[in-house]
Amino acid sequence: MLPSLTLLGIGSPATKAAKFGGEAEESSTTTDTISKLPDDVQRAIVKIITSIEVHPEERDDESFSICEINSTFRAICKSLEISSWRDLFIKFGWQLDWNTGLTPSEYFKMMNSLTVQERKRVTSLKKNTETIEPDLFDSPWNAPSLLALKALPPNITEISRRAFRQCRSLALTELPAGVTEIHEEAFMDCKSLMLKTLPEGITEIEDYVFYGCTELKLTALPNGITEVGVAAFADCSNMILETLPEGITEIGDSAFLGCASLMLTTLPEGITEIRDYVFWGCKELKLTALPKGITEIGETAFLSCTNLMLETLPEGLHSIGKEAFADCIGLQLTALPANLNYIGDGAFYGCIRLPVHLQNAIKHLNLHAFDIID
User: Fold this and answer.
1) What is the Cα–Cα distance from 356 to 275, expressed in whole angstroms?
2) What digits encode the pLDDT tens for the residues 164-181?
3) Is residue 63 in some structural domain?
4) Structural domain includes residue 151
5) Helices (H), the chain
């Protein structure tokens, strides 16, 4: 059974007088302050507080109506008067000065409930921060964050999963040189992110790390990278990568899907498979050859790569997936590999420059290789 908690109602004298960081006037209403509650109850109220606006400077009234609360408190919590939980913020380590940076991790998690004006004011993190923890600034899809950090602390070495996902006002132009790990979805859908380089210590671009970062300006990746994850750079439409590090041995599905400005002319020789959707829609891709070790090309791997000018395919290639080269109008193949034994439907749809003898050889393996089959 929870202890009795009397909360001041909206419009009471104490509520109207309360200011962030200030004292409320005396009231005849008896209030059991949150600080007297057991720790587990206090934590539950903390959880409630994180789902509402926490900075009242620009509100007409200073009470906080709760829309989404823990079911335990649904019957008793209708509003919270500021002075009743001010001390609780201090107890749990949350700062009250919004201009000095953010710490600790609990404080990060409050970002999604800030007003537009407050988010714009948060432009820096504490200088001694070393790790951006999971989900810290992650925003729901229907309410993208306006977090506008100008830079990250110099000692940062790790950026955890979903740390800045949906932070569409995040316009960083560089990351600290000591960063060695960026985990999945860390910058997903950060549409203002304008990184020009990545720290040299990074060895892997994990799944969805830069998915939807339409303003990303990378022209090269760190030399130590060995793997590019699933959809790692998907829809980075302004990224003008010209080369990939030779150490890369694996590129995941959809890794560069929709990268319309990608200008690669070669791929690393260690790659043995072109996976599904990898270069779909990369209209500026200018490959003239593929790595000799390639044995399989996945579905829609090069779909709509209109500047792809491949003249040969690797001799070890045995499979070309559905619509793999569809609408590659610049394709200039003259022969098929001897080991090729599978061509998917629509694999060469729209490839208008292929010579007749090659078209016949392709149709011998699949009559529908030039047709889109629903």
Assistant:
1) 28
2) 898 888 889 999 999 999
3) yes
4) no
5) 13-17, 39-49, 82-91, 105-108, 116-121, 356-365
